[in-house]
Structures are given as C-alpha cells and as structure tokens.
C-alpha cells in the first residue's frame, strides 16, 4: 500500500537541524510506518549556507524567509530549530497555516509565551511535539517502564545534573550561530532553559509534578562581546543553576546544571530512589541503566548495570536495531522521537511531550528563575 507522505519544512540548520534531519532520514529504514518522511524544504536567512545544507542532507528546496516556508502548500510539518525567541512566532504562524509542528526545546521563552503557542495549536487542531529527545534513549525509556510498573515503591528522592564546560573562556562572544545560547535576548535563559529543561522534562515524566522550588543561579562572566553588535555587552543568562524542590508525591528534588564544570562535556545524570528500588543513568554511558533492587536475595543483592541492547521488546526501541549487545547512540533518540510522532499520527494518540506537556517544564523554569531572583521558595504555577 502506498505510504502517506509527511513533507518536512525545517527552519534552521545548526546542530539540531542536523540531528533532526538525520532522524528523518533514518526513521523509515528502522521504524517502518504508514508514513514516508520527505525532506521537502529547509530555511535560513543566508541563501548560500542553506543551499549547502540542503545539498548535503538532501532537502529538495530552500527558502530564506520562514514565512514563505510556512506558507508553502507542499509542507505538512514545520520543524522549528532556531533560537528560542523565534519559536512562538513561527509556531503560531505554522498552526494558522494548518501545519503539524515539531519544536526544539524549551517550548518558549517563558510559560506565558508557551500558553499562546498551545492556544494556537489547539485552536488549529494540528499535531505538535517538543524535542525533549532524552526520553527516548532506550535506557531512559526502560527506567520509565520500571517506574510506571510500581516496582520502586514510595519515591523519596529525585536527583539530576547536566554539566558542561564550553563557556568557561571569558573571551567567548555571545550572540550568533551556536552562541545565541549565551544571549538572553535570544535564549531567554541560560543553563536552566538549555540544560535543566531536559532534566526537568524527564523528572516530571518519571515522577509527576513539582509543587515548589528553591533555586540559586550565578553568572560567572558578566560581560561578553556580542557577535552581532561588536560591543561588550552585559551577560544576563544563568551560567549555573542549582535548585531543590518538592514533588507533589512528597519526594525531594535536587538538580544542578552549569557550563563551568571543567572536564564535563555533556554529563547528564539522573537518579531516583524508591523504597524498593533505585535507578541511576548517565548520558556518558547512555546504553546502561544501573538498578538496585532491594527485593533481590540478600546474598547477591547489589547494583547491577543493565546493558539495554537486547533486541526483545523488553528493551524499548532495540528490536528495530542490530543484534543483541550492539549499542545505539545519542542520534537515535531523535529517530525514536520521529517514529513515535508518526505512530501518534497513525493511531490518533499523540506522542508526548506535546506543547501542553512541555508547558509543565516551562512553569518549573519560570519558578526557578523567580526563586533565584527573590532568594525564596516559590510555588510552581499550574498549567
Ligand atoms: C548545549 O550545549 C546543548 O547543545 C543543548 O542545547 C542541547 O539541548 C543538549 O542536548 C546538549 O547541549
């Protein structure tokens, strides 16, 4: 039977543009579905750069104005992988044009802006999703299954950190390609929105809502040259953010993120401690899940390291890859996300996180920044 086409129009072509496009190219081979994903058009302001990207990755057409891309009748889904301050405008226009939307994280600059995006996609009735890709690392998805099975018992603690070191140099400019993450006008926030957003998304998915938070942020380098103005300008993003919190289920939260942890490139770790079981995961060893099961016999009880590479359905997504024992990587979390999105289109049961799901993370981010500013505990807003 002929497959339905899902014609992608991508806005942006940076690191995430490559990660998403790689997923679109892989998905049909490894996760066959009712849909054929077509790389129809990509868009960026620089005509030469976007042409080179299109040629390298196989997009049929290019545009230099996102409004023209969104208006194209030959596009079914708009993929937004541009700086955070552009998400809302593009998403709202794409929804009005009846396009499905896949939006990079975090959803918006803040929860208020996120709500306008939700109103737009829900009024238009268009499928929507946010690229919180780490949910779909097989070991992380397996952790979710274990938590949902109730085997952990009462949950006491949730702990996560995301450490990097790429902004330590004080002469690194802010603004422009890649470096927009250091410019508050483009990014909204620093490590909280960029890195902790991932940790928060996974935490809420695993352990339910956070009720209140108490945060501390720091900006270590106060001024940086702005690539676009050529002048030294104040840095207003959080370079580091640490927060505590209380989940609605009574468990305690402990989160940390920084781009100043020398030697750590992308160390995202999470741990959840329940009365019967603890689970630990580390992005630097992403196919392993560490599990301590108190119900194991006492003589041999201890932490075990499960290599989540069995090609049985017990190991999420792995049956579609290689033979047992052979790992897949970071890139495939995006492929899995597209596979789930397509399944959601086929079944009518949307895969998460939808824009509405991602609002929960945005509300926690708003509460963290407010708490750090006020130097007080803050209640997390309700969706
Ligand atoms: C920042 O360095 C970054 O690229 C984030 O923007 C991504 O979301 C994260 O997955 C890896 O680090």
Short key terms for the protein model shown above:
about 375 residues, globular, binds alpha-L-sorbopyranose, 10 helices, six-stranded parallel sheet, Dihydrodipicolinate Reductase, domain 2, alpha/beta, 2 domains, Rossmann fold, nine-stranded mixed sheet, single chain
CATH homologous group name of the largest domain: Dihydrodipicolinate Reductase, domain 2
Q: Into how many domains do the coordinates divide?
A: 2
Instruction: Please give the share of residues in helix.
Output: 25-40%
The first-to-last residue Cα distance is 42 Å
What's the oligomerization state?
single chain
Estimated structural class: alpha/beta
| Topology-level CATH name of the largest domain | Dihydrodipicolinate Reductase, domain 2
Please indicate the percent range of residues in DSSP E strands (runs of 2 or more). 25-35%
Number of strands: 17
CATH architecture of the largest domain: 2-Layer Sandwich
Most strands sheet? 9 strands, mixed
Structure description:
The chain is an alpha/beta fold and 383 residues long. It folds into two domains: 4-133, Rossmann fold; 136-378, Dihydrodipicolinate Reductase, domain 2, CATH 3.30.360. It contains ten helices and 17 strands. It has helices at residues 15-30, 47-57, 66-71, 87-96, 111-124, 138-148, 184-187, 191-207, 330-347, 355-374, and strands spanning 4-11, 35-43, 61-63, 77-80, 100-103, 128-130, 155-163, 210-218, 223-225, 232-234, 240-247, 252-258, 267-274, 277-282, 288-293, 303-307, 378-379. The strands form three sheets. A nine-stranded mixed beta sheet has the order 16-15-14-13-7-12-11-8-17. It has a six-stranded parallel beta sheet with strand order 3-2-1-4-5-6, sandwiched between helices. Helix 1 packs across helix 9 and helix 5 packs antiparallel against helix 10 (355-374). The N and C termini lie far apart (42 Å). The model has no long low-confidence stretch (mean pLDDT 97). The site of alpha-L-sorbopyranose has 5 residues, from helix 8.
């Amino acid at each position: 039977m002929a497959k339905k086409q899902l014609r992608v129009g991508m806005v942006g072509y940076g690191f995430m543009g490559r990660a998403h496009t790689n997923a679109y190219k892989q998905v049909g081979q490894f996760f066959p579905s009712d849909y054929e994903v077509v790389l129809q058009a990509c868009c960026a302001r620089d005509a030469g750069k976007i042409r080179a990207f299109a040629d390298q990755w196989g997009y049929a057409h290019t545009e230099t104005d996102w409004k023209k891309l969104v208006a194209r009748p030959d596009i079914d889904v708009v993929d937004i992988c541009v700086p955070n301050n552009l998400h809302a405008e593009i998403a709202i226009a794409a929804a009005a044009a009846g396009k499905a939307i896949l939006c990079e994280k975090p959803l918006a600059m803040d929860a208020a802006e996120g709500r306008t995006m939700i109103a737009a996609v829900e009024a238009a009735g268009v499928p929507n999703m946010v690229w919180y890709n780490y949910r779909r690392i097989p070991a992380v998805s397996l952790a979710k299954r274990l938590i949902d099975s109730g085997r952990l018992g009462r949950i006491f603690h949730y702990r996560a950190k995301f450490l990097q070191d790429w902004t330590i140099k004080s002469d690194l400019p802010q603004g422009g390609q890649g470096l927009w993450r250091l410019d508050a006008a483009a990014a909204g926030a620093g490590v909280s929105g960029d890195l902790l957003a991932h940790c928060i998304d996974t935490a809420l998915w695993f352990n339910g809502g956070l009720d209140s938070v108490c945060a501390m942020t720091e900006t270590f380098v106060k001024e940086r040259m702005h690539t676009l103005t050529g002048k030294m300008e104040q840095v207003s993003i959080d370079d580091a953010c640490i927060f505590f919190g209380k989940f609605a289920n009574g468990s305690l939260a402990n989160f940390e993120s920084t781009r100043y942890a020398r030697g750590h490139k992308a160390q995202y770790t999470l741990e959840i401690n329940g009365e019967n079981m603890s689970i630990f995961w580390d992005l630097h060893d992403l196919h392993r899940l560490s599990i301590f099961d108190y119900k194991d016999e006492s003589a041999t009880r201890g932490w075990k390291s499960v290599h989540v590479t069995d090609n049985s359905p017990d190991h999420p997504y792995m049956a579609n890859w290689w033979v047992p024992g052979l790992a897949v990587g970071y890139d495939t979390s995006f492929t899995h996300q597209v596979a789930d999105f397509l399944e959601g289109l086929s079944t009518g049961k949307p895969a998460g996180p939808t824009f509405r799901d991602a609002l929960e993370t945005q509300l926690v981010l708003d509460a963290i920044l407010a708490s750090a500013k006020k130097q007080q505990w803050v209640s997390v807003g309700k969706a």
